[in-house]
């Protein structure tokens, strides 16, 4: 990862910084990879759930 002092300032950078400050969770996240692997092994498709959310 780059040192923050070497990053180039762009319009996107401002949006990202705003998102990071307002929306980024400070607490540890829950890793869902084991759940996705379990679902895959049990023939439950993660993409199926995502593709049918709008239905």
Description:
The chain is mainly alpha-helical. The protein has a domain at 31-55. It contains 3 helices and no strands.
Topology:
Elements: H1 11-23, H2 33-41, H3 46-51
Assign the structural class, choosing from mainly alpha, mainly beta, alpha/beta, alpha+beta, or little secondary structure: mainly alpha
Give a short account of the largest sheet. none
What is the CA-CA span between the terminal residues? 40 Å
Question: Could you spell the SSE succession in H and E letters?
Answer: HHH
Would you kindly provide a brief summary of this structure?
The chain has 55 residues and is mainly α.
Task: Jot down its keywords.
mainly alpha
